[in-house]
User: Which sequence fits this backbone?
């Protein structure tokens, strides 16, 4: 009972904070009479976001650490990636150059509210093997960080698309008016992609070269491996195109989203098909 209450409390806290965050940012863009008051409210909500983030970690611990083993089914995997994404984005809000990007905190909070309940809907049925190995722990941590950063890159690319359309159809009062210039957002996008790409490279290398140490068995060529390599190739081509040909704007956004979708198919898609569609664990 206590466990379920923790999930529900986290869900409602995420939802409430997301709602108030969105309302206050919107009101701040509409009203110019009380900028300090609106800014203080947003700042307070930013600190309040730490409460559901901490509770979310507790729910993940409950859903993943089952007895002496580690359960990491579809629900726990998605919930972990969303939590890391939310935490990284939330933490970046403490740095001045990222404060204009807090427009996405509200939708991230709403997505986190849904994600926190996923381990209840899709519980971990089978415990993972070799979880006691340091190589496995390192591989899992790096993989989740890579997924989270590239998720942020995809969200960032979507936000850039909205901002670009807003430039062609501007309105006097919009929450988008407080965002950094599109060029600055583009530079930040490629910094995020570079870090995510490095972590994705380490994930693939550790899984391929050290398969025996990580998974306890020789490398097997699966759909997850194939899509992971294709996704890595897409991001590599994007970064190369940026360096060699100055790719930017819509081209960069399309490649970013394409690489992210393929990466999503590599792990989350494979888990969904195996655990939900085929009922194989």
Assistant:
């Amino acid at each position: 009972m206590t466990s379920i209450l923790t999930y529900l409390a986290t869900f409602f806290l995420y939802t409430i904070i997301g709602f108030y965050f969105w309302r206050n940012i919107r009101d701040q863009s509409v009203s110019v009479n009380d900028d300090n008051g609106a800014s203080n409210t947003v700042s307070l909500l930013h600190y309040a976001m730490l409460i559901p983030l901490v509770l979310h970690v507790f729910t993940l611990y409950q859903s993943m650490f089952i007895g002496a083993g580690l359960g990491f089914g579809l629900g726990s995997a998605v919930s972990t990636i969303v939590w890391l994404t939310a935490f990284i984005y939330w933490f970046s809000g403490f740095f001045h150059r990222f404060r204009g990007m807090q427009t996405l905190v509200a939708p991230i909070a709403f997505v986190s509210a849904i994600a926190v309940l996923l381990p209840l809907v899709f519980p971990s049925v089978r415990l993972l093997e070799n979880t006691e190995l340091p190589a496995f722990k390192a591989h899992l941590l790096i993989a989740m960080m890579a997924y989270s950063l590239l998720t942020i890159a995809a969200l960032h690319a979507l936000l850039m698309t909205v901002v670009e359309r807003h430039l062609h159809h501007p309105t006097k009062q919009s929450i988008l008016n407080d965002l950094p210039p599109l060029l600055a957002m583009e530079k930040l996008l490629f910094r995020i992609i570079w870090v995510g790409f490095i972590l994705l490279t380490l994930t693939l290398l550790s899984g391929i070269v050290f398969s025996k140490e990580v998974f306890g068995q020789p490398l097997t060529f699966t759909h997850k491996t194939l899509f992971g390599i294709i996704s890595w190739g897409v991001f590599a081509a994007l970064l190369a195109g940026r360096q060699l040909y100055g790719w930017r704007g819509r081209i960069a956004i399309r490649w970013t989203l394409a690489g992210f979708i393929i990466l999503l198919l590599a792990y989350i898609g494979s888990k969904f098909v195996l655990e939900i569609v085929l009922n194989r664990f």
Observations:
- The chain has a mean pLDDT of 82.
- The chain has eleven helices and three strands.
- Residues 134-168 form the longest helix (35 residues).
- Residues 1-128 form one domain.
